[in-house]
Structure prediction request, 286 residues.
Amino acid sequence: MKTLKTIGALMILIMAISCVSQRKYTDLQSYSESCENELKDIENELLVAETNLANEMNRTNALEKQMEYFKSTNTDLLDRLSDLSVVSKSGAESIKKSLEALNEQNRYIKDLTSSMQRKDSLNLVLVMNLKRSLSEFDDEDINIEVKKGVVYISISDRMLFQSGSYRISQRAEDVIGRIAQIVNDHSDLEILVEGHTDNVPISNECMVDNWDLSVKRATSIARLMQNNFQVDPQRITAGGRSEYFPKETNETVEGRAINRRTEIIVLPKLDQFFALLNTPLASTDD
Prediction:
């Protein structure tokens, strides 16, 4: 009986011990699982932290590259600005001279245009006065026109001279006197007298050829203007052009009659005209 009680007590003790061990095991297992979960959480947090760190490092590297680019760009810009500054300083005087030259040329063009307008107006007045003064003479013998910017008075030889002669007729004195009166009113103009012939040869004791005839006719008109009508001889130039500047063909009687003529050309003083042309150009080249 006593033995049965002892066995029962042992069994109860074994069962108690067994229950305690099973509980501890369960507790340990739960603790282990909890630790594993915490480790996993820590690992996840570490992965997230590493990813964030990598991203931040990438951003830092990108910013550093941008900083280097900006530094390089700024240095390049500063170099360019420095070069531009040097160019501007070295070119400023040249640009200034160019602008001054352009202004000088502009003034020259304006002056020249104004002079040309004055000359054209003067030519118009001369033509009107000459035509009014010579209106009673035949238009076939006297032609007045503006060519190449100057006034041409073309007078046929039959009005001025006898055929083959350089002696002036009485009628010619009337014509030349009226022309002289008008040109004397404009002392700033010069007079060019040109003699022209046809191509029919001439040779006598007074003249060798048509060159002689054209020159002697021109000097006869120049002398008449000076001696009889007080035109300043310093304003007069006389020359002959022989048969080499015809207005019409020399193959017809009518054409030869037109070519035998004396032309009185009224033009501005050449020294003043060339001074107007050359002075601005000389200052522009400096």
The two ends are 150 Å apart (CA to CA). The first strand starts at residue 142 and ends at 147. Residues 70 and 265 are 78 Å apart (CA to CA). The chain has two domains: 1-84, 115-277.
